[in-house]
Structure formats: structure tokens, C-alpha cells
Amino acid sequence: MTMLKIHAEALSSKIASYHEFLARFSKNKNVVYGFVEGKEDPCFYRGFIEHIIPEDWEVELWPAGNRNQVIRIHKDIDWRRFPKKRVCFFIDRDLSDLIPEKLPNDINIYITDKYSIENSIVNRRTCSRILTEVFGFSGVNHNDLEIVCNKFEAEYEKFLLAMIPIMAQILYWRRSQINANLNNINISKIFTIQKASIILDNSADAESQQIKYLHKTVGAKHNNQVDLSSFKAEFSQTTIYRKYVRGKYVLWFLIEYCKSIHKNATIFFSECNQPPKINVTISASNAIVIIGNRARVPQSLQQFFTDTFCAYIMNTQTKA
Questions:
Q1: Secondary structure (3-state) at 193
Q2: For residues 89 and 42, is the Cβ–Cβ distance under 8 A?
Q3: Mind listing the pLDDT tens digit for each residue in 55-83?
Q4: How would DSSP label each residue in 28-93?
Q5: 3-state secondary structure of 12
Q6: What's the rounded Cα separation, in Å, for the pair 69 and 288?
Q7: Overall pTM surpassing 0.85 (yes/no)
Q8: pLDDT tens per residue, range 12-44
Q9: Residues 289, 43 contacting (CB under 8 angstroms)
């Protein structure tokens, strides 16, 4: 592609990551390319991709800012000049199945199985690895660790159930096209975890107070006349609440659960007389990077890599 064509195509889009891709794209280098939503996503997806491509190949990923931006870039690219299996796009499913809204369908677009990629990696196995590799419990009694992981599954289920009214409100906003900045919601203001147990407010007005907090936080006007019962009933289905609780919230639960286990190490691990040394500080800002390196790649994502990047590289090597 000539520099003149690159410049002209860049001017047609205001997305910075798209400009950079056009400028850096090389027809001959051993590089595959991709676009993701958020700034933490490249680290997460890169770890998976580098495990499946040959050592002499590299991957370059760019955060587009949000799902709509990723979709727009895919739409703007002139696919007559770029091999689709070499340039891939990674987007969150979000609540699209429930709203419903149609997402693009193409061989080089990966859509997460659940709300987001976080939902596929927050599980018992990941919890065990985070506790042993990050929070220092590598030498603990195996039976104690099993009990802690059993408890994780039980408390996680309680948390997902407790999230139903909150997600019902979010689903109402989305279906009603009400602007609500979900990034402003601090889930720690609604739930806490003490001694590895989720603390729930079972008072009569607990749910109404949660809804008021949500409205105030996201900047949406609270309407007392809105009946969320049908939304809650819909979200109460096992296949729904286990799949569509917002990814950032389930990641919060995993982090806070592990922190609580560490804080109360002497309760849960017989050989601990104090909490072990933490190998790296984990928080919401770096969790996806730390956890992503320890999570198993979802099967659907593995297949996507096989059908795109791997297929492209194999075809390139065959031609050579």
C-alpha cells in the first residue's frame, strides 16, 4: 500500500488505532494484527495468541476504545487489500442477545461466549491458580485448597444471584436506550466479602437502595414507576444470570474473594500462622493482565485462532 493511499484511508476515520494499523501494516513481515475494545485487552489476548503462533511470528493489537469502534474499523477496512484471516477483531457479547441487537458476523470477528472475556476466565481453576501463584499459597495443604475453591464456587453463585436486580436495571436501561455510564458503578459500594463470604443486605429496602445508588452513580433519572419484575424474572434463568452478569463485576468478585482468603489465611489453611507474602499486588487496573496469563483459553477462542491466524500462517508457509 502506498503512503498516499494510507494517508487517504486514515483521513476517512477518526479512530487513532486504525491510523496506526494502516501505517504499520506490512505485507511481508511475519506479523498478524488485531483490534480489541479496551486498553487492558491487548495484554490479555496477546498472551493467548503468542502461545499458538510460531516463534518467528509476532502479533500487534490495538485498543479501539469500545465495541462500536472495533466494529467500525472492521467496516471501514478495504478487505480487497487485507487478508481477513490475518487481521482479527475481538468484541464483547455484552447484553446483545437480550436487548436484542445484531452483532456483525464475519470469519475474523470473535465475539465472547458470555458478557465479556472475563466471564469465561473467572472460575474455580483460575481462582486456584491466583491463590497459589499470586497470593502465595503454593505450599498449602491440598485438601485445604480444595475446600477454599469449593467455597469460591458456592459464594460466586450467591454473588451472581444477588446481581440479578442490578443487571435487570442495566438491561432496562439498554433496551430503553437510556444513557447510563456503567463504568461509574463501584460494586464495592453494594457488596463486600468478609472471611470469604459475600455479605448480602437482606433488609426490606435493600434492593430499592441499590437501584437508587445505580441511578445516582450512572447519571440516569430515577423513575419510581418503572417495574423491573419482568426483567428480574428474565435474568433469573440459570442460563442468563450465569452468562450475562457484567464481566467487570465477576472479576471484582474473584479479586476480592482471593484477597479475603489471604487476609484470613490462618482460618482457611491449617499450616498458616500468618498470611503469606503476596508475589504481586493485584487490583482492578491490572487484574486482567495478571489473571489472563493464568487462565485457560476458552475453547471458542482457541477455535477462532485456528481458523484465522493459524490458517493464515500455515497458508503463508505453504506458499513459501
A1: strand
A2: no
A3: 999 999 999 999 999 999 999 999 999 99
A4: SSSEEEEEESSTTHHHHHHHHHHHHS-TT-EEEEEE-SSHHHHHHHHHHS-TTTS-GGGEEEEE--
A5: coil
A6: 21
A7: yes
A8: 445 899 999 999 999 999 999 999 999 889 988
A9: yes
